[in-house]
């Protein structure tokens, strides 16, 4: 047995036998001191052992530990992506454009649906006399609410589909050529004939329309009949009460039909003219004035091609307000031709171009500017 493991009683016995002392009391006092020291050593050893056990227990990890993932970096990376930059650029471009051109939108809508004067100047005067200057911005609040998500979804969808289609064509061209044999005929499958810009434009129009059509309905109702729909909340409750949720999608079919040629030609025209001009001038990009002009030209072309469908669409959307609503798009076109002739299909075309051309030009200019800023800041260019 080691000395450190002896008990206080054993210390007393050993000391009394092995060490000479002057007196019995001297021997007893010394033994008491040694015994106390030994007891202290034992207590210290026990405390240190307990401390070590406690440290081991504290440092030990539980067998099942749940830790929430740190999403801050993922969110930050998401907002720095190209897609988000394009989405935000579209939203900002739409908001800035509509804030400037709201009066032209009001006049265009009134003339398309046949409300009031048939002349642009007369329609302006009529609105001002009846509702004051603020009447030119009738429905602009809902128009702003509508245009921000619409333009964001539209531009974001266009850029993403165009990029995806281009990448798919590149991958397809590197693969072994696919062919189909039908008797003596050998058909080679290729994606080169498909325009990524046209597909992207068509997809942009369809997706944004499906997402934001109820806002378009509200905007037209507020613009045409402010006495019936004085504000947004009244318009929402009245439309829902009259026709339920389906009423917010009144005219969705002709809208989609009319949107396809407009959106496809709009984006195709802009990209084609831009690329051709840059190639001819040996430039990498357009300046702001050139963007404004090319954007205006693309809007003019798209509006001219699809305007008869736009007239029919507007008739279907607000026909209920006049007590006569055509059952479908063909009926709406027939009704217009019967009442006003073929020229009736282009009634309001001048006002539409007056609105669409500056709107398209300004939108493209703002969009390209915001996209350059955001993409450069996020190191995508």
Overview of this protein structure:
This protein is mostly helical and 381 residues long. A two-stranded antiparallel ribbon has the order 1-2. Among the domains are: 76-178 and 189-249, Mitochondrial carrier domain (Mitochondrial carrier fold); 254-346, no CATH class. 72% of the residues lie in helices and 3% in strands.
Oligomer category = single chain
Please state how the strands of the largest beta sheet are arranged side by side: 1-2
Q: In the CATH hierarchy, what is the class of the domain at 76-178 and 189-249?
A: Mainly Alpha
CATH fold node name of the domain at 76-178 and 189-249: Mitochondrial carrier fold
Q: Could you say what the CATH architecture of the domain at 76-178 and 189-249 is?
A: Alpha/alpha barrel
Secondary-structure-derived class: mainly alpha
Sheet with most strands:
2 strands, antiparallel
Helix content: over 70%
CA-atom Rg in angstroms: 40 Å
SS element count, helices: 12
Tell me the overall shape: globular
The low-pLDDT segments are 1-5, 56-60
The CA-CA distance between the termini, in Å, is 81 Å
Strand fraction: under 5%
Topology, number of strands? 2
Average pLDDT: 77
Order of helices and strands: HHHHHHEEHHHHHH
The CATH homologous superfamily of the domain at 76-178 and 189-249 is named: Mitochondrial carrier domain
Keywords: Membrane, Repeat, Transmembrane, Transmembrane helix, Transport
Organism: Cucurbita maxima (Pumpkin)
Family: Belongs to the mitochondrial carrier (TC 2.A.29) family.
Solcar repeats: 81-164, 192-276, 286-373
